[in-house]
Design a protein that fits this description.
about 30% strand; alpha+beta; five-stranded antiparallel sheet; 9 strands
């Protein structure tokens, strides 16, 4: 074999080996880049989901002169409430005030009737489901009757079940909140 032919063959083989090594390195770099990109996308998705996550809660105000039940969105995103269920002793209502029974009709300070369609509760917003004040009841009745209405409210809280189905505005997650009130 001729020296020039051997050098040419060795040079050709070396070029193929170098090219193959370069391809292996390029594929590994591309795989690592794609993996990092996917990790960044996953982190971004989690951050996005957390930044628009609604967190609903039920708050009861049980002061002597003010009684209320409220839904509050403690989360960072708007809640889309898709279904609601309020019941006590098997009786289902869309308006919390319908669950309370007093010896006389009262004029409520505030109450909410759940719509049959979806509705929105933005971050930090609170929605009063039902409320009465001693002052408003006192205007309707004498003072002692107002005291008994306020006490009756407190007793009748016990056993009211509230269930809310909701999601975030991007439809990334669905949630369910349940709470049984106690007096």
């Amino acid at each position: 074999m001729d020296v020039a032919a051997a050098v040419q063959t060795i040079g050709g083989v070396a070029s193929v080996v170098v090219a193959a090594a370069a391809l292996v390195v390029a594929f590994r770099v591309e795989k690592r880049t794609a993996s990092r990109f996917q990790m960044q996308m996953d982190v971004t998705e989690r951050i996005t989901a957390a930044s628009i996550q609604p967190v609903l809660g039920i708050l009861t105000s049980e002061f002597m002169d003010y009684k209320a039940i409220k839904i509050i969105n403690y989360g960072t995103g708007t809640a889309v409430i898709t279904a609601s269920e309020i019941c006590k002793d098997g009786r289902r209502v869309r308006n919390m005030a319908q669950l309370f029974e007093f010896d006389r009709p009262i004029i409520w300070k505030n109450y909410w009737t759940f719509p049959e369609s979806d509705f929105y509760l933005r971050s930090g917003q609170e929605l009063t489901l039902a409320s009465i004040t001693h002052e408003s009841v006192e205007k309707q009745f004498d003072g002692s009757s107002a005291d008994s209405v306020m006490e009756a409210w407190q007793k009748q809280l016990d056993g009211i079940e509230i269930k809310l189905s909701y999601r975030d505005v991007a439809r990334l997650r669905e949630y369910e909140y349940r709470r049984t009130l106690k007096s």
